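Case study B.
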Amino acid sequence: MTSQATKIESAYAHYLSARLEDKGDPAWVARLRESAFDRFEQLGFPTVDEEEWKYTNVAVIAKTDFEAPPPANINLNQESIERVAYPESSGSRLVFVNGIYAPELSATQALPAGVVVMDFSAALADADYAGRIREHLGRIADYNENAFTALNTALFTGGGFVYVPRNVQVEAPIHLMFLADSSQAVVATFPRVLVMLERDAAATVIESYESIAGDKVYWTDPVVELFVDENARLTLYKIQREGARAFHVANTGAHLMRSAFFDCTTINLGAQLARHNVVVTMDHEGAECWIDGLYIVGEGQHTDTHSVIDHASPHCVSHQTYKGILDGKSRAVFNGKVFVRRDARLTDAKQTNKNLILSR
Amino acid sequence: MLEIRNLSATIDNKPILRGISLTVNKGEVHAIMGPNGSGKSTLAKVLAGHPAYEVTSGEVLFEGMNLLELEPDERARAGVFLAFQYPVEVPGVSNAQFLRLAYNEKRKHLGEEELDPLEFKDLLNERAKIVEMEPALMSRSVNEGFSGGEKKRNEILQMAVLDPKLAVLDETDSGLDIDALRIVSEGVNKLATSENAIILVTHYQRLLNYIVPDFVHVLYQGRIVRSGGKELALQLEEKGYDWLKDAQPQEAEMLATAGAPAAGN
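Model:
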């Protein structure tokens, strides 16, 4: 059993070699990748024996032989992404195909001066931004306890870097559009997102995942890290509309500073197997978060949400509302944990999960 | 209107305020700023009469009365109002009822006739416009299920209804989005008159873009280390608090006591 697992896991080693050859990365990123990959090899893919994965069996992901995405060669133009685009974001949008940035489909002209929205790899290659990224990359979404986060940290290719400076309010929603093209190969992609809001800043970010071509099995393993500084306000929408045969395992981590505000709404519609972990850390006074979600699943679909809200400081507020609609032979899991640490006086935490089951 | 002389206070024997002197005249808006843990909120709570804090020295005169000798409810009736940093939810008590009882307590104290629910409703609807509050929020329980911004607006609504002589706003701006900040600030500006005074406790200079203070005081380690005009807030925004930490508290206190704006540098 172990040898089988080891064989599959080491299949990702050649991805790592390819990443490490990328000269655009600063040296510390290479070290981070190696260390995360070590951790991934130690952890291995989780099994249903582990409490956190009791109801979600990812053996099918572990057993599939995924390929590195080939360069997207399908002809995409503005019209072809119209169906999945939002007009409000026509000037504040980054598009990625199989995890690789597609500049010809992206536009950022609607953003105020000083706001940075760019491809993650390009941001890492830029000394101005690499320093800021280093402060948070891999620190908000912990890769030590989660094989999927570890694998993403080792192998990420591109994604969104969003930086909003002090006092700046971004009106247009920033749309990070992750498109999957599984017409060529059985691909695995590892998008990475880091959003940093400085003090008193405000922004709305949409991360969407959809299939635009092909009906093969594919796997998306995104990791999203969010840093919301004092008194800043972040609204995040995560829209998951992957293809019918896709696997989607996402990790979202948010770190809220004093009086920060974070409103997160996830919509889960696609994929045959979807898992979303969302971890919110509130270790400064007065932070507030609203973590809401909707999942609608039909025949053959499995969706799983695990949330962790960590109240580590007094006077923090969290509200969670998750609703689900299940049809056909489908399964949904909601597991929400709220930690109230010592000294986190006057914590206000609410959690609701309601489900509508249409079939029997 | 308010005279604080050499006020020191502790919580659980831990000194928080270490000799604060401040004079606030009617018609004035004072901003109290400072880093985390500098004692800003403590000062606000001591003025309102929070029982957890012990005043160890100094005195506070409010309209010639010894404020520290009064119970919190007596202070409220006398015209002192505190907008909470973290407003509490009071399930089972409707917002309208809560406000009416508080308002009538104050009228009784002034020897005026109490308003019945219908009369009060007219007054409430008119005051609610100041903070652009939905009438639906009046029939709901106090702050229950309110967003952070709605809770803060509700604090200013209480201020609008109770019409205090001295309003102390404890970080009313924290956690507000830009629209809520504008509504709250405009509300406060509408309520400020030549007959009342406002102390704004704030962590962020941003609020002072909307409410222009006459004086800005910086608290550090329980002392006022610098007082000045509104330009001081801009300097703080630019330079942070570090440059003030070495300031001489004595000098600053003298300026604060005199109630004169220090020359900004």
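Chain B touches chain A through 13 residues (CB under 8 Å). The remaining cases will be described in the next quarterly update.
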